[in-house]
Amino acid sequence: MSHAKPIPIRLSLAGACALALLSAAPTRAEQAVEVQLTYANGAFQPSEVRAPADRPVVFRLKNLDGKAMEFESKSLRVEKVVAAKSEGIINVRALKPGRYEFYDDFNEKARGALNVQ
Q1: Phi, psi dihedral angles at 66 (to 5 degrees)
Q2: For residues 115 and 72, what is the distance between their CA atoms, to the nearest angstrom?
Q3: Is the pLDDT of residue 57 over 60?
Q4: pTM, whole model, 2 decimals?
């Protein structure tokens, strides 16, 4: 006599619930806007970028410097260390119109902004 039968039933029910939730969720990945940034000589290039409102943003940040940098923004609620001579991906939620500043936490003189319209 095994009591293993309720476990597969629970797992099946949990799987069905997860599948239902996933199918009801909007496909945000398709709606994301990609923003290209370069970090070189201690500065963001370009220093100001734009994105449409109410769509997620994906920053593709290439760090060309010989040392790591940390992309940080309190208003965007993100921070990410990007190693020297590498690329980092920073995902940001859909935003309302406004200006969102970011900086290199290792070099606070390096500043930039995302203008959402």
Answers
A1: -85, 5
A2: 16
A3: yes
A4: 0.72
Residue keyed to tokens 């039933």: 9
Percent of the chain surpassing pLDDT 90: 73
Answer yes or no: are the C-beta atoms of 90 and 61 closer than 8 Å. yes
**Tokens 């009801």 found at:** 24
- Distance CA(93)–CA(4), nearest Å, equals 42
Per-residue CA distances from 46 to 1, 11, 16, 87 (Å) = 68, 49, 46, 16
CA distance 33 to 74: 20
- CA 59 to CA 87: how far, in whole Å? 10
The string of pLDDT tens digits covering residues 10-45 is: 545 555 555 454 444 444 445 899 999 999 999 999
Residues 6+ apart with CB under 8 A from 45: 37, 38, 39
The CA distance from 53 to 46, in Å, is: 20
Contact 34, 101 (CB under 8 A): no
Question: Using an 8 Å Cβ cutoff, are 113 and 99 in contact?
Answer: yes
